[in-house]
Design brief:
This protein is mostly beta strands and 129 residues long. Strands 2, 4, 5, 6, 9, 10 and 11 form a seven-stranded mixed β-sheet that branches. It has a four-stranded antiparallel β-sheet with strand order 1-3-8-7, with no helix packed on it. It is globular, with a radius of gyration of 14 Å.
Length: 129
């Protein structure tokens, strides 16, 4: 059974950087013909929203427009994980960040939370002075 475990959240000041990671356990990314892994976030009182995604099919990356140029998503098959490097953080980036994944031939990066079958429990990121 595949499990996703996030780590690396914390409290930072505006303008700081933070890196969150998602470890895949139970299977290895290379077991699958294709995979898509994404980061979502959910702030209090708001809906869960897509932040960034990476897909092995066509080696594609996708970003929500407010984070493009500040955040970078990367997958590491050797470490069986995906990371989100967040730079120039702003208070509006404060949220619980969730890792999501789909596996299988033809899998592509989707932006709707309902498209993903596997989820981590989340890690809190707080940006405050």
């Amino acid at each position: 059974q595949v499990q996703l475990v996030e780590s690396g959240g914390g409290l930072v000041q505006p303008g700081d950087s933070l890196r969150v990671s998602c470890a895949v356990t139970g299977r290895t990314l290379t077991d699958y013909a294709d995979y898509a892994m994404a980061w979502f976030r959910q702030a209090p009182g708001k809906e869960r929203e897509f932040v960034a995604g990476v897909g092995s099919k066509d080696d594609i990356t996708l970003y929500e427009k407010s984070v493009k140029g500040r955040f970078t998503i990367s997958s590491d098959n050797a470490k069986n994980s995906v990371a989100l490097q967040m730079n120039s953080l702003e208070p509006k980036d404060t949220a619980v960040y969730y890792c999501a994944a789909n596996f299988g031939r033809g899998t592509y990066v989707a932006t709707a939370p309902s498209s993903y079958q596997n989820w981590g429990r989340g890690t809190q990121v707080t940006v405050s002075s």
